[in-house]
Inverse folding.
C-alpha cells in the first residue's frame, strides 16, 4: 500500500503475518469443514479470523503515518500526495471489482452470457474496495488535520456510528435492530447498492457495505494515531512501547464494556469492534516492535516480512488463482467434468486426511505455495507497489 521511508521491520512482519493469515482463512479446501477459530463469528462476537481484516486496515493507518509525514509537514506537497493516494485507492478498488466480476466475465466469454447482466449483478464493494476507499479518506484526513483533530474525528466516528445504529429508526422496522437483515446498515445497502450488487451469500446486506465503511475509517485512523506516536523522536523506545501497550489494553477494555450495549460485530464493524480489534493490534505491534526493532530478534521474521513487502499483490493473486483453476475442467471417466481445483483437492488431500484436516492442509499448502513465489521476489528485490 504505502512504503514507509523510515521502515520498521516489525511493521513489515506484522503486515505479512496478517496477510498470510488472511490467505489461510480465505482458502480452505472445503467451506463445510473448517476449524472453529478459522471461521468468522456467525454474527455477534469475535473469532481470531474476525481480527484479520481490521488488523490490516489498522496497519494501513500506521503505514500512512510513516509514509506521508513529510508531506503532512509541507502544505505544498498536499495536493500531489492526495493525487497519489487517489490513484492508489482507485487501483485497489478496481482490483477488487475485477475479482468480483471475473467469473461473470468468463461466463460472457465462454458461455455466451450477457455482458449487461454481468455488470447488473456484480458486487460493488468488497475487501480490496474497502481498503481503497478507507485509504483515500484516511490519507486526506491525515494530511489536512492536526493529530489532535484526527483523534477527535476518530472518537466522533465511533460515537456517530453508534448513534446512527442505535437511535435512527429503520423504515418499516423500528429502532435499535441489530439483526442481519433489519439493521440500518443493511437497509442502506439495499437502498443504495440494491440487492443485485451486495454480497452474493446474503443478497440483503453486505459485510463491506456503505454505512459500515465509516467505522472502518475509524480503524485506519486508530492505526494512524499509533503510527504518529511511533515516529516521535523526543521519546525513547521503551516509553513508546509502554504507551502503545497501555492504550491497546485500554481500548480492549473499552471495547468489551461497549460490547454489553453495542455488540462486537465484524459484519457491522461496530464501534466496540473498532476499539477491541484496534486495541489487540496495538498490543501486537508493540510486542513485535519491542522484540524485533528494539531487542533485535530478527531471525524468524523473514517468512512474514516476505509476505508483508508484497501484501496486496499476494492477496490479489490468492483471490484470482482459485477463480482461474475453477474455470479449467477435467473430463471424468463417466463423461462429467470437474473443476481442476476440486479435482486436485479430492485426489491429493481428501483421501489422506479427515475432512477438516484435509481442508486445513490445503489452506496451508496454499500459503506455502505463495511463499515460494514471494521469496523469489524478495531475493530479487521485487516489490510491486499499488
Amino acid at each position: 500500500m504505502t512504503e514507509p521511508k523510515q521502515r520498521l521491520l516489525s511493521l513489515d512482519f506484522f503486515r505479512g503475518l496478517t496477510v498470510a493469515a488472511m490467505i489461510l482463512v480465505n482458502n480452505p479446501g472445503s467451506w463445510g469443514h473448517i476449524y472453529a477459530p478459522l471461521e468468522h463469528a456467525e454474527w455477534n462476537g469475535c473469532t481470531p479470523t474476525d481480527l484479520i481484516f481490521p488488523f490490516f486496515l489498522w496497519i494501513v493507518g500506521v503505514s500512512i503515518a510513516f509514509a506521508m509525514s513529510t508531506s503532512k509537514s509541507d502544505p505544498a506537497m498536499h495536493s500531489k500526495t492526495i493525487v497519489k493516494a487517489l490513484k492508489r485507492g482507485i487501483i485497489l478498488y478496481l482490483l477488487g471489482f475485477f475479482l468480483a466480476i471475473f467469473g461473470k466475465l468468463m461466463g460472457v466469454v465462454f458461455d455466451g452470457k450477457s455482458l449487461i447482466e454481468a455488470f447488473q449483478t456484480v458486487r460493488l464493494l468488497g475487501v480490496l474496495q474497502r481498503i481503497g476507499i478507507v485509504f483515500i479518506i484516511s490519507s486526506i484526513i491525515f494530511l489536512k488535520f492536526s493529530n489532535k483533530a484526527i483523534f477527535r474525528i476518530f472518537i466522533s466516528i465511533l460515537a456517530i456510528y453508534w448513534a446512527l445504529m442505535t437511535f435512527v429508526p429503520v423504515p418499516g422496522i423500528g429502532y435499535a435492530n441489530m439483526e442481519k437483515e433489519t439493521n440500518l446498515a443493511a437497509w442502506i445497502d439495499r437502498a443504495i447498492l440494491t440487492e443485485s450488487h451486495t454480497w452474493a451469500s446474503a443478497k440483503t446486506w453486505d459485510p463491506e457495505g456503505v454505512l459500515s465503511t465509516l467505522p472502518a475509517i475509524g480503524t485506519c485512523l486508530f492505526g494512524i494515531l499509533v503510527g504518529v506516536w511511533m515516529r516521535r523522536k523526543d521519546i525513547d523506545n521503551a516509553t513508546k512501547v509502554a504507551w502503545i501497550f497501555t492504550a491497546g489494553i485500554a481500548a480492549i477494555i473499552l471495547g468489551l464494556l461497549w460490547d454489553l450495549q453495542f455488540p462486537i460485530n465484524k459484519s457491522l464493524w461496530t464501534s466496540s469492534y473498532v476499539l477491541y480489534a484496534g486495541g489487540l493490534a496495538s498490543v501486537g505491534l508493540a510486542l513485535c516492535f519491542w522484540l524485533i526493532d528494539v531487542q533485535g530478534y530478527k531471525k524468524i521474521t523473514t517468512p512474514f516480512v516476505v509476505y508483508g513487502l508484497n501484501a496486496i499483490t499476494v492477496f490479489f493473486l490468492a483471490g484470482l488463482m482459485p477463480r482461474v483453476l475453477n474455470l479449467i475442467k477435467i473430463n471424468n471417466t463417466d463423461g462429467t467434468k470437474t473443476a481442476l481445483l476440486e479435482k486436485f483437492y479430492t485426489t491429493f488431500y481428501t483421501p489422506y486426511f479427515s475432512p477438516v484436516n484435509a481442508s486445513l492442509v490445503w489452506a496451508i499448502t496454499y500459503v506455502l505455495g505463495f511463499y515460494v513465489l514471494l521469496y523469489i521476489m524478495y531475493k530479487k528485490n521485487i516489490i510491486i507497489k499499488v
Observations:
- Residues 78-111 form the longest helix (34 residues).
- The chain is about 65% helix and 0% strand.
- The CA atoms of residues 242 and 286 lie 8 Å apart.
- The radius of gyration is 21 Å.
